[in-house]
Amino acid sequence: MNKCKFLFFLFIAGLVAFASCKKDDDGGGDGGIDCDTVKYSTTIAPLLQNNCNNVGCHDSGAAQTNGDYTSYAGIETVAKNDTMRQKVLIDMSMPKGNGVLTQTELDQVECWLNAGAPDN
After folding, report:
1. CA-to-CA separations, 96 to 16, 57, 58, 104, 117, in angstroms, rounded
2. Inside any domain, residue 9
3. Is position 77 within any domain?
4. Which residues contact 40 (CB under 8 A, 6 or more apart)?
5. Domain count, the chain
6. Which one of 46, 56, 87, 100 is most buried, counting C-beta atoms within 10 A?
7. Residue 11 lies in a domain
């Protein structure tokens, strides 16, 4: 009988402990980034310049093969048709060659895409 009470107590304690755990992220996927501060001109364009606009990748010379991401006009289609979301945030297959983006950079890209990838 005491063994049953003890096991029941452990079970209840485990449930209470599990239920009291709180996820710090609200599930919005932005990792705590203030999405209002993420702008194409000040956040996304420099990120693209540092990670994607490498010679032969997505620079102006690659417009015919890989796309030219040196301007908003060049990135707009892949940003708005979810290709960028798929390759950068889901598959994490981009960027190539430079390793991976930091979590902050990924969160910034997600904020920008969630806002409709505006030219701001």
Report:
1. 45, 9, 11, 18, 22
2. no
3. yes
4. 72, 112, 117, 118, 119, 120
5. 1
6. 87
7. no
Structure tokens at 95: 């960027």
Tokens 């060659």 — which residue?
Answer: 97
Backbone angles phi, psi at 95, to 5 degrees: -80, 155
Structure tokens given for 8: 């029941």
- C-alpha distance across the termini of the chain, in Å: 69
Q: How far apart are CA 83 and CA 88, in angstroms?
A: 8
70 lies in which domain range?
Answer: 30-114
Assign 52 to helix, strand or coil: coil
| 16 falls within a domain | no
Distance CA 65, CA 25 (A): 38
